[in-house]
Amino acid sequence: SSAYDFQNNLHGEKRTFSQNGEPLSIEEWVNGQLHGKSTYFRNGNRYVEVSYLYGQKNGTERHFVDGDIISQEIHWENDQKHGLSIFYAE
User: Residue 7: which H helix or E strand, with range?
Assistant: First the structure.
């Protein structure tokens, strides 16, 4: 079984970590497609959250500063930017 076959059958939550154990990503998969919320980390802090609907970005993508402060929100529908993108300044 190749890695390609494994990816096609991915189902459930997939977590990846750096060599020193910090989280890199938490993704929700259904039948080999991103589906649900995916969260990506930088230096142990959450920096992007994206919602997927059967492999396509759908919903609000949020970017964070220091893991908690929202710096921008981008709205997606069927893998295309849709509506407003909001940028927050201090």
Answer: helix 3-8
